[in-house]
Design brief:
With 104 residues, the chain is an alpha+beta fold. The chain has one domain: YaeB-like fold. The chain is 32% helix and 22% strand. It contains four helices and five strands. It has a five-stranded mixed β-sheet with strand order 1-5-4-3-2.
């Protein structure tokens, strides 16, 4: 449904490790972004200029996943995720912008 709120799956161990190891100020920004996402519909995620939800074309997704996406999780970091129904399954938080797109 277009008005269904996004549900977050933060259970990926790599994502958790990335999140917990962020510097405190960036970790706080990331948590605020996740809090914001929980309040949005998928249509709002797609059109939100602050999140910049973008399909990653340079990385082939694993079997069973249609596409991987990146989104801005803080001012300096991007996360990778994919959509699974109403779930946004978080995968990683890249150390820098290029790493998100498999360029490093």
């Amino acid at each position: 449904m277009p008005n269904d709120r996004v549900e977050l799956d933060l259970n990926n161990p790599v994502f958790q490790e990335n999140l917990f190891n962020l510097p405190k100020d960036i970790r706080h920004q990331a948590i605020e972004t996740l809090r914001k996402i929980r309040q949005l519909t998928w249509q709002q995620v797609y059109s939100d200029n602050g999140l910049k939800w973008e399909k990653i074309l340079s990385v082939t997704p694993p079997k069973g996943i249609a596409a991987l996406y990146s989104l801005r999780i803080s001012q300096s970091r991007r996360a990778t995720a994919y959509r699974d129904g109403n779930l946004m399954r978080m995968l990683t938080i890249a150390p820098d912008h290029d790493a998100t797109y498999g360029r490093k």
